[in-house]
Amino acid sequence: MTSRRRFLGAVGSALAVGGLAGCGYRPGGGDVRWRTERIRGLTPRNGIEVTEGLLVTVDESTMGYDFDSEEFTRGGAVTAYATEDGSELWSDSLGSELSCHAIGDGGGAVGVDGTVVRYGADGERWRVDLDASLVALAVADGRAYALTETDALVACVDGSERWRVALEADADDGRGFGPSVAAGDDVVVCSVGGVVVGLAPDGKRRFHQSEAGVRELSVVDGSVFVVTGHGLATVDSDSGSVTWLIEGRIGRFAVTPDTVYGAFDAELVAYDRSGDRRWSTGGGGRSDGRDGDDTDYMGRVAADADGVFVDSSRGLTSLAPDDGSVRWRAQNRILSDGPFLVDDGVLVVEEDDLVCHYRTDTF
Prior knowledge:
With about 375 residues, this protein is mostly beta strands.
């Protein structure tokens, strides 16, 4: 039987696509643009991200059944969907569980049995067998950067190993969180034992930064961001110098050319790129003296120059970048994943449904 939520969602999708004949209806911001229900592979999963027209999901551990041997089997899976309509484009099942993964650069990469498998828009592109298990991956500029359990960083291009750098001497007595690696077109950074090491894409070392407690690394538009147990900082990609942007614990964050947005403890906060707080909202109040906002903001934040989008206790919410005022709310239940920005829309996962909302009014 069709649930009330699915029925209303279907009606909303129909209205968003065709409008109401003869009444001049035009969809507004937050209205459903399209909905694809009960998509295979959306749950459970270990990674999900949008990259160049694809929504890519990774499940590092799957279970199946071999009818010939009458035994249960384990493996991993990577699946890609089109962000324009939610249709499945390709899916790859691997015969062993995955040790790590990365999504980006128009596809992604996974580590399986010491092998790097690189994906693109049409599925698998190439693979490279290495001599050690993989603990972290990053993708950028057609390459895959793999961090091995022996603390070696390996660059792979077009199905072959391009270079390898040993990092054992950089580790600092095992401090910090687990190893990680991130990359952009012009820089590669990795964390081993709480130390951040920066390299050029050709493997030449640039810096060694003893910033203990690194929890997460990311490269956004050429800038290196480090999340630690006590804040968010940028690291100069040439010198390794650190500039603190946010002091205190931070959850998920989004970056635009002039602003960093972070959601933590039910509050959404905007900082300029020098670290000065611009505005905050949620958690019962506002920083600008206007009426308090008792909405709880949580989870992933997505932003560009035109809007800020975040899940909340009142549903998916769109806010103005300049002052944090609410533009619209979509009355959905708490999201499983998202929001993700796609062409002309905001993509979210509701349970096992993939839903795209209009960003702004179409009139």
